[in-house]
Amino acid sequence: MGATFVIALREGIEATLIISIVLAYLQQVDAVEQKRTVWWGAGIALTLSVVVGALLFVIGAEFEGKAEQLFEGLISLVAVGVLTWMIFWMRRQGARIKGDLQEKVDAALVAGGRALALLAFVAVLREGIETALFLFAAAEGTAAADGGVGAQLVGAALGFALAAVLGILLYRGGITLNLRTFFRVTGLVLVVVAAGLFAFSIHELQEAGLLNFLTGTAYDVSAWLPDDGGLGGLLHGLLGYRASPSWLEVIAWTSYIAIVGGAFLRPVRTRDVAVRSVAVPETPAVR
After folding, report:
1. What spatial distance separates the first Cα and last Cα of the chain, rounded to whole Å?
2. C-alpha angle 97/157/46, rounded to 5°?
3. Which of 48, 153, 163, 281 is paired with 59 by a 20 to 30 Å CA distance?
């Protein structure tokens, strides 16, 4: 439940931040009549994202044995790639997100309502498709030891619910959120989550017979810290911990943490000004 909660919260905050900035800017430029168009575009994108997520689970359920392991391994590997890109994209582009969106809104207002709806649709759809991909990979990778797929979906629902509440409070000015701290902390958590997904994808591909090297057990601590319940199950659900991984899984997890985590922790270049906070009296202010 933990991994899907963090993923849903992070992606939900990004989506609600985008919508809040667009709606507030429409208010600022006295184009409130276009807010309905934004909601239509966002609603259609959200519906399509749910459909994509459902299809992933339905298609995954159709496979058995090695085909299932191959499908889950490849989807998890794609999810790791997209998740890694997303972490660094927000780290690099976060400071410019408000200005970029406002420029796009200005252009869409000139082009007409459909262009504005398309802007909201594309922004939310990107977050939605990413979320569907991540949640499928995280649910399949941690479900057995973390309460089943149902528990993973509950975790995602709680993450989205909290993101929605925070988004409303941001828009109405009820809270001030330090986005620099939020995205840095959740980014670090997602680096660890992605490392677990990477190791899981390696495990599934080895089980499917695609990676037939370094398959020996690196260590086995299942006697005192099993990954199917208790503390081990919690660590499995949050971090992708396995009690008896192969050597390739250990190398994959360690390498990802060292390379991606090290790159993420490097100081941001001075020209890439970091996102500091959002405080919303009438318009979301990214300062």
Report:
1. 33
2. 50
3. 163
Alpha carbon separation from 157 to 11, 80, 103, 126, 175 (Å, rounded): 12, 21, 32, 18, 22
Q: State how far the Cα of 144 lies from the Cα of 63, in Å rounded to an integer.
A: 17
3-state secondary structure of 176: strand
**pTM > 0.85:** no
- Rounded to whole angstroms, the Cα distance separating 105 from 115 reads 9
Beta bridge mates, 246: 217
Helix spans in 94-147 (H)? 97-111, 113-142
Interval 85-106: pLDDT, tens: 878 877 766 556 666 666 777 7
Summarised one tens digit per residue, pLDDT across range 56-90 is 878 877 777 888 888 888 888 888 888 888 788 77
Beta-bridge partner residues of 279: 176, 285
In this structure, are residues 73 and 210 in contact, taking their beta carbons and an 8 Å threshold?
yes
138-180, pLDDT tens digit by residue? 766 655 444 556 666 777 788 888 888 887 777 776 566 666 7
Domain boundaries, position 76: 2-286
CA distance 9 to 27: 26
Q: How confident is the model at residue 280 (pLDDT cuts 50, 70, 90)?
A: very low
